[in-house]
Amino acid sequence: MRIKILNIDRCGLVFDISRVLFEYQLNILYMQVEKNVIHLETKAISPESELLVLEAIRQIASITDVLPLNDASAKNKTTKSTVIFDEILHASTTMQQAITMAKRCAVTESTVLIRGETGTGKELFAKALHAGSPRAAKSFLALNCAALPENLLESELFGYEDGAFTGASRGGKAGLFELSNGGTLFLDEIGEISPHVQAKLLRVLQEHKIRRIGSKKEISLDVRIIAATNQDLEKMLHDGRFRADLYYRLNVVPLFLPPLRERREDISILVPAFLQQYAKRLNRDTLTISSEAMTALMQYDWPGNIRELENRIERAVNLVEGRCIQTEDIVMDSKKPFSPIVTECAESKKTLREILDETEKKILCQALCHYHTSRKLARALGISHTGVLQKLHKYGLDFASSQA
C-alpha cells in the first residue's frame, strides 16, 4: 500500500500515523517526511483493509487528505524495492564512476555523504544504497532537514516523552531514529541543521544512542545514516557554521554526483525514458523527439539538473500537438534563447556525440584565450578543476597552443 498524506505540520504527527499502522499490524517499508506531505509505503493489503486504514489515518488531527497511489503510479515512482544501481540511467563515465563507488560502499555499514547540486539524484542514490545493503529488507526513511523548523526537526528525529513540551502528544512518540532502527535513515539537506541539532546528531553517530526529548533513558540504535547536501560544507567549516567533528563523522564515504551540464551525454538516455514515462502517465501516444529539439536540450546548461530536464519533458508532452516533439514545444523558464550553434548543428549530418565534442572544443579554445590558468578556466566554465584537465587532454589543448 502506497499513500500520500497531506497535513499541517505539528509535533507527534509521525507517531500518530505509526500508531494507526501498528494497530493494523502494518510495518513501514518506506517513509519520506517533508513539509506538509508524507509519502508512505507498507506491505500490500486487501482493498477492504486498505479502506479501513486510510479512513483511520484521515481521522488523525492535522491531516488534510490521504491519497492512495495506485499500481500504475507506483511503477513510475522510485521505491526501495525497485531502485537498484543498474536502473540508474546514464551514459557518462563520471556517473559510472559514482555508481561503482556506491556499489562498493552499499554493502558496508559506513556513513555516506552524497554531494551534488539540487536535482542531481541524491535521494535516488540513497535508496539504491539501501536496496543494495544487508538492510534492504528493513525500513528506509527519508527526511528533508530544510523543510522543518529546528524544534520540529528535533522532535521528528529524536521523539519525545509525554509532557516534554506544550503540544506534545499524550504518551509521547518515537522519532525517525527509532522508527528506522535496523534500517537506513536518509537525511537530505544536512547543511541546513542548526548547531544544536548538529551536536545531538554527532552524539548519535558516536554513541549509537539517543534520548527522547524530556527523557533521561538512553535508547540503543542500529541505524545506517546516509546524508546529502548541495552546500559547500568546507566553506561552512571555515566560517564556523558546521561542526568539524560532525563533518568527519558524516564524510566517511564521500559520493559526488556531477551536474548534468558536466555529463551531457546522459541527456540522450534520460530524454527517451522521460518521454515514455509521461506519455504513458498522461495517456498520450508514443512520442519521439526531433534531432533539432534533442540538440537544443544537449546545449542547454540545466541549472536545475535532472529535475529540471524531467519537468521540461513533462511540459513538452502536455504541449505537443503531434507525435514528435519539436524545439518550439520545449518551453524554458529562462528568456535566454538556445545557442545559435544549435540551429547550425541541427542542419548537419553529424552524430550528437560529434556535435557535442565540436561545440565543447570550440568553447574551450575560446576560453583559453581569456583565462591563463586551469583553475580560472574551471571557475569560468562552471565545472570542476579535474573536469577541465580531462577535457583539455581529450582535445589535445593547452594554454601554449591558445597563444599560437
The percentage of residues in β strands lies in 5-15%
Helicity, in percent? 40-55%
What is the CATH T-level topology of the largest domain?
Rossmann fold
**Name given to the CATH homologous superfamily of the largest domain:** P-loop containing nucleotide triphosphate hydrolases
Which geometry do the CA atoms define?
A: globular
Helical run tally: 18
The appropriate CATH architecture of the largest domain is: 3-Layer(aba) Sandwich
> Can you tell me the number of structural domains?
3
Described by strand count, sense and barrel closure, the largest sheet is:
9 strands, mixed
The low-pLDDT segments are 71-82
CATH class of the largest domain: Alpha Beta
Question: Alpha-carbon distance between the termini?
Answer: 66 Å
- How many strand elements? 13
**Gyration radius over CA:** 24 Å
Adjacency order of strands in the biggest sheet = 4-1-3-2-6-7-10-5-11
What class would the helix/strand composition place it in? alpha/beta
GO molecular function: ATP binding; DNA binding
Organism: Propionispira arboris
Protein name: HTH-type transcriptional regulatory protein TyrR
Domain Sigma-54 factor interaction: 88-318
What tags apply to this protein structure?
alpha/beta, Rossmann fold, single chain, two-stranded antiparallel ribbon, 13 strands, 404 residues, Helicase, Ruva Protein, domain 3, Arc Repressor Mutant, subunit A
Please provide a brief summary of the model:
With 404 residues, this protein is an alpha/beta fold.
